[in-house]
Amino acid sequence: MIVYNATAQQGSATGLRPQPEPTHPTSPRMVAQAIPSCKLVGMAVQSHQLEVDTRGDTHVVNVTEQVARCVESGNVKDGTATVFVVGSTAGITTTEYEPGLVKHDLKALFEAIAPDNARYHHEETWHDDNGHAHVRASLLGPSLTIPVIDRRLQLGTWQQIVLIDFDTRPRSRRVIVQVVGE
After folding, report:
1. Strand, helix or coil at 68?
2. Average pLDDT across the chain, whole number
3. Is this structure's pTM higher than 0.90?
4. Into how many domains does the chain fold?
5. Stretch among 7-21, 53-67, 76-90 having the lowest mean pLDDT
6. Which helix (H) or strand (E) holds 69?
7. Domain range spanning residue 144?
8. What is the pLDDT, as a whole number, of residue 41?
9. What are phi and psi of 78, to 5 degrees?
10. Whole-angstrom Cα Rg for the chain
11. What are the DSSP E strand ranges found in the chain?
12. How does pLDDT run across 114-140, given as a tens digit for each residue?
């Protein structure tokens, strides 16, 4: 077993380097073990890029069909699809894409958690108005991984993949879809 310190190390591409086993029970660490049955032979990686125009202001955009087309058009039959939005003021998740959620409920939730009119030190640093957008995107996260079986996304009947743009202006968002598998 190799134990890695989870803090970034200067000069390390991954930020991980072998460390002695931590003696304190709360020390941050990651444990990597070789799994003899794990084979990477025959694995394929396919990357796709989508451009999504948004209005900002917690705009929810359904990207399920575009992601499904990426998966269906590739040669990966079984694996995973990772959907990642480039930028720090938008996020990706799944939800039921219906008017009550996308036009009111999600916006109300994020407004309650990180109000757009609150004081954000980010805005003082950069003299802009989107501190709340960065906080909201940080909470949601930039990516999502979905299982792929027989070139089909494994989503529930009412489960759609959505991009939520929290910025204060319209944007053209770049979304990367990376499919890995056999």
Report:
1. helix
2. 85
3. no
4. 2
5. 7-21
6. helix 64-73
7. 44-181
8. 63
9. -130, 135
10. 20
11. 2-5, 29-32, 44-54, 59-62, 79-85, 90-95, 143-149, 152-153, 160-165, 171-181
12. 999 999 999 999 999 999 999 999 999
Residue type at 102?
V
The yes-or-no verdict on residue 150 having pLDDT over 50 is yes
Q: How far apart are CA 70 and CA 76, in angstroms?
A: 10
Question: Which residue type sits at 33?
Answer: Q
Rounded to the nearest angstrom, the gap between the alpha carbon of residue 154 and the centroid of all alpha carbons in its chain is 17
Q: Which residues pair with 147 in a beta bridge?
A: 80
Q: How many Å apart are CA 40 and CA 46, to the nearest integer?
A: 15
118 and 164 together in one domain = yes
CB 168 within 8 A of CB 56: yes
Strand segments, DSSP code E, in 21-70 are 29-32, 44-54, 59-62
Whether the CB-CB separation of 179 and 79 falls below 8 Å is answered with yes
The rounded distance, in Å, linking the Cα atoms of 29 and 18 is 10
Q: Look at the block and give the residue holding tokens 């930020």.
A: 15
pLDDT band with cut points at 50, 70 and 90 for residue 170: very high
Does 48 lie in the same domain as 34?
A: no
Q: Are residues 108 and 145 in the same domain?
A: yes
Q: What is the pLDDT of residues 22-35, one digit of tens each?
A: 444 444 444 444 44
CA angle 177, 178, 182 (to 5 degrees): 135
Joined tokens for residue 15:
């930020």
Tell whether 6 and 71 lie within a shared domain.
no
